[in-house]
Amino acid sequence: MILVTGGAGFIGANFVLDWLAEAGEPVVNLDKLTYAGNMENLAALADDGRHIFVRGDIGDRVLLDGLLAQHQPRAIVHFAAESHVDRSIHGPGEFIRTNIEGTFTLLEAVRAHWGGLAEAERHDFRFLHVSTDEVYGSLGPRDAPFAETNAYQPNSPYSASKAASDHLVRAYHHTYGLPTLTTNCSNNYGAYQFPEKLIPLVIANALAGKPLPIYGDGMNVRDWLYVGDHCAAIRAVLTRGRTGETYNIGGWNEMPNLVIVKTICALLDELRPDAAGPRERLIAFVKDRPGHDRRYAIDARKIERELGWRPTETFETGIRKTVRWYLEHQDWVAHVQSGAYRDWVEKNYGARQ
Ligand code: NAD
Ligand code: TYD
Asked: Which of 55, 83, 185, when mutated, tests ligand 1's pocket best, judged by the most ligand atoms within 8 Å of its CB?
């Protein structure tokens, strides 16, 4: 079996569902269930004996040692993290604790476990660390996209904490020989994404007739990847990736935020027309994010060349699926928009108007 961390969050839950459908191998899913973790994402697995859910912290060494000894996973896929840049600006402490100290504790537990395996199992073992393109910093309009060889230049507490965890993973391979793999992916979108991130926030606000907040001039550029394509890429890296290597994963789909928001407005107008008029009327330019990275772009040629992976969704097909999913799962959105969510909206947007 494999051990997944953070498998009740957005990408982790998509991965667990995808993994059980595609590979069918049992999963132990360790998740702390922070505000971002949600058992509703895994409701389809409630009666599936191949999925063992454990609520706990990756910083809990005793728990980790027990899980590794009991389940003897052949691989770890590490998603658990604090993941939202704006939250890292308001409160970086939790990012240091989970992304850096938590990853360190996990690496230490895994190193001890791996060191005790028989030779063949040691050789086949894998530790896959899921990271972000944000570690590379910000690009100018004409800069080449991020390659695996780019220098790390993280600019936010979030990206700095992910960069630190990437360095630890690298060091554990180099120093101890732990068979690691690191993936650095661009912005994901799709089902089960918490509505603090741009795309689900805009869908939820547009449906509720609320303002669609755009930071700065709306011309910050991100590369967007449909989450199902990310899951397939992780499966490819886990199965065929060369240990000690990093693989950049992207959608070949750079877009300014304003275009993303207008695309969502047009889709909602088509699928769920609003008597009050086109959703674009709700667009509201608000105070920019401090230190807002201007542009991210991914050169995903290495993973294509070595592992034969390319995204299958275009933005047009992926965003249509995503908008439809949110239209069909408004209960899910309503449940996560709890009191704590409303506090966050007030904290992040209250001072931007
Ligand atoms: P998310 O915030 O939706 O989910 C994170 C999950 O980790 C949650 O279920 C949460 O409960 C769990 N978690 C947090 N702290 C924990 C701890 N100390 N112990 C155990 N579990 C804990 O994040 P996501 O968007 O699904 O991102 C998953 C991973 O992918 C992260 O490592 C993130 O840095 C990386 N990533 C995300 C994106 C993106 O666009 N969302 C892009 C590239 C890389
Ligand atoms: P986000 O989804 O937070 O991802 P990241 O910052 O990790 O790329 O934001 C995506 C882009 O959208 C980013 O340039 C910030 C911008 N943004 C807004 O303009 N308004 C918002 O309310 C949010 C949450 C993000």
From this structure: 83
